[in-house]
Every structure is written in structure tokens, then in C-alpha cells.
């Protein structure tokens, strides 16, 4: 299942790695694509969107509902 999340606060490569690692802690098999300029994170995962968003938020980023 594909989830598209709007994430605020990503400003660098470190941010992208942090978001990717957060998602992969929830689902190690997830595929993560990030468009930092658009603030968009696209995740291929069978995990619920809420779990993925919560993991990203725990890293300090704002995820739009």
C-alpha cells in the first residue's frame, strides 16, 4: 500500500535519513521516497498510515493529518 505524507521540517540529508530510519523501524521492508522541496514522503508499506506518521513525528517532524 502506498502512503503519501506531508512532512514539515525536513531541511537536509540528515533529516531524510532520520525520516527513512523512523519509517523502517516500524516496517523494515518499507520503501521510502522523499521529496524534501515539496515536504512529501511516499512510503510503500502494509503498516497503517497512523503508525508511520507517529514514528516520523517522534523524530521531531510535523506530519499533516
From TrEMBL:
<dbReference type="InterPro" id="IPR006121">
    <property type="entry name" value="HMA_dom"/>
</dbReference>
<dbReference type="InterPro" id="IPR036163">
    <property type="entry name" value="HMA_dom_sf"/>
</dbReference>
<dbReference type="Pfam" id="PF00403">
    <property type="entry name" value="HMA"/>
</dbReference>
<feature type="domain" description="HMA">
    <location>
        <begin position="1"/>
        <end position="64"/>
    </location>
</feature>
<dbReference type="GO" id="GO:0046872">
    <property type="term" value="F:metal ion binding"/>
</dbReference>
<protein>
    <submittedName>
        <fullName>Heavy-metal-associated domain-containing protein</fullName>
    </submittedName>
</protein>
